[in-house]
Design brief:
The protein is of the alpha+beta class. It has one domain. Helix content is 31%, strand content 26%. The chain contains 3 helices and 7 strands, in the order αβαββββββα. The strands form 2 sheets. It has a 5-stranded antiparallel β-sheet. It has a two-stranded antiparallel ribbon with strand order 4-5. A hairpin with a 6-residue loop joins β4 and β5. About 20% of the residues have low confidence. The structure holds zinc ion (2 copies). One zinc ion binds next to β7 and α3.
Amino acid sequence: MEICIYAAALFTIAVFFLIGIRIVSRKLSVSSVTPEPAAASGKRIPCILCGSVLAKGEKLYSKETIREKDSIIHMYGCPHCHGDRSTEKKICPVCRKPMSSDEYLIGRMWLKKNGRKHLHMSGCVRCAGKI
Ligand SMILES: [Zn+2]
Ligand SMILES: [Zn+2]
């Protein structure tokens, strides 16, 4: 009987652990993007503003302001959601609100200890505040 209870407790712990991991990974996928390894491996990454998968040669429009320890990124979107010929609507991945064509996402990029660039998107002008 004791073994049975022990097994049940272990199972519960495992389930909680899995749920915890899932919540954490979902949060991460919304708020942080690391485009460098994906781009390097040739994997197509979708635009975080409209979800369009970028074709070869299509680039995300962004502006980088380099600071002492990191840089501020203003992400405007891809050719599908930004510019005169855009057809898709921009949606903020953080607050899920539609954004106007001239609005951008605000993010911060820094070098991690392993030498990789890490990009953290905070949200749109309305939910992350202007930087
Ligand atoms: Zn886009
Ligand atoms: Zn937002």
